Hints:
The chain is mainly beta and 142 residues long. The chain is 13% helix and 36% strand. The chain is built from two helices and nine strands; from the N terminus they run βαβββββαβββ. A seven-stranded mixed β-barrel has the order 1-3-2-6-7-8-9. A two-stranded antiparallel sheet has the order 4-5. β7 (112-117) and β8 (125-128) form a beta hairpin. The relative contact order is 0.24.
Amino acid sequence: MAGLFGLGGRKKRDDSGRVVSITREARDGILSFCKMKHPNEGILVLKGRARRGDVAVDGLVIPPFSETGPTFAGFPHSFLPLDMSYVGIVHSHPSGSARPSLTDLNNFFGLISLIVKAPYGEGDIYAWNSGGDRIRLVVADG
Ligand SMILES: [Zn+2]
């Protein structure tokens, strides 16, 4: 993607206009799941819809055969049934960092990745794209 616009120093991709919205119910479900998994990482599949770059998350799925520890969380993607409503994954960072690790980016699944950092409060969820750039996250009412 680098050099797409031919301008040195320009961001490789502009995701500043993109928004991830999440229902209050899904957000609360993520937070309590991560608290329950602490001090290990928790991982969930995000269900929702995508439209022109914007993603709306409205459901959660516990992935089959997931394995988690204090510094990793993963599952074999091949065990997940093909479902177009899977928009990404969310996992927790008990270490307290919200940044995706290199492993996270290498194992990117879907369109977006949410990371929840300890102590898993309402403001501890961050959205990222596959390039490791942050995307705006809003809580949808209703
Ligand atoms: Zn991670």
